[in-house]
Amino acid sequence: MKLVKRSHTYLLGVIGAVVIIGGIFSIYFSNTSVGILSGKNNGGKGYAPPRITFQGLTSDGSSFQGNPAAPVTLVEFGDFQCEFCARFVKDTEPQIYQNYIATGKINMVFKHLVHYGSNSDLAAAGSQCANDQGKFWDYYHILYTNQDSFMLSQDSEKALKNLASKIEGFDMQKFDSCLAGDT
């Protein structure tokens, strides 16, 4: 019994010490200008992250939907082969669009986070080719709702082109040229 009480006392002491040391570091780093935590011209009040702007997020051709002047920007990092990204697009994104984007409360920017392989690279390139025609979000929805058709295809490029052909008003010659040009 004494051994159990002693180990509990020891454990509580260690937890207490960690909390106290953490508190001291927190106070110290928030009130001084030490190393990388100093930030730029912020009066030594700790780290000041760089300001992220809507213009900065979209300056590289990233697609967005919604009002560019909206007070909040939601940034989605996605891969067209990611099953969790597809779940987001099917289940959550329509609600976000209806309640926040369509009402002008937020805008949403898409950033490619390609990491599933060559089909992901090809799908990302295709989406940028669709973006050149102002059809990124149409292609985005088609890709996520038809993931298996290009992920499991023997000819992914052909499958991606087939999906693109379903977009109304889409110039397939421009798309094919863009995709072949690897732009």
Short descriptors:
single chain, 183 residues, mainly alpha, 2 domains, 9% strand, globular
Task: Describe this entry's structure for a reader.
Mean pLDDT is 80; it is low at 1-5 and 21-39. The chain is mainly α and 183 residues long. The chain has helices at residues 2-31, 54-58, 83-101, 118-132, 136-145, 147-151, 156-164, 172-181; strands at 64-66, 72-78, 106-112. The chain is globular and about 55 Å long. Helix 4 (118-132) runs parallel beside helix 7. It folds into 2 domains: 2-38; 54-181, Glutaredoxin (3-Layer(aba) Sandwich). Strands 1-3-2 form a 3-stranded mixed sheet.
Average predicted local confidence, pLDDT:
80
End-to-end separation: 72 Å
Q: Say which CATH homologous superfamily of the largest domain is assigned.
A: Glutaredoxin
Q: Tell me which CATH architecture of the largest domain applies here.
A: 3-Layer(aba) Sandwich
Note the main sheet. 3 strands, mixed
Helix content: 55-70%
Number of beta-strand segments: 3
How large is the radius of gyration? 24 Å
Give the number of helices: 8
Given this structure, which CATH class of the largest domain is correct?
Alpha Beta
Class inferred from helices and paired strands: mainly alpha
Q: CATH topology of the largest domain, what is it called? A: Glutaredoxin
Low-confidence stretches: 1-5, 21-39
Strand order of the largest sheet: 1-3-2
Summarize this entry quickly:
The chain contains 8 helices and 3 strands, in the order ααββαβααααα. With 183 residues, the chain is mainly α. Strands 1-3-2 form a 3-stranded mixed β-sheet.
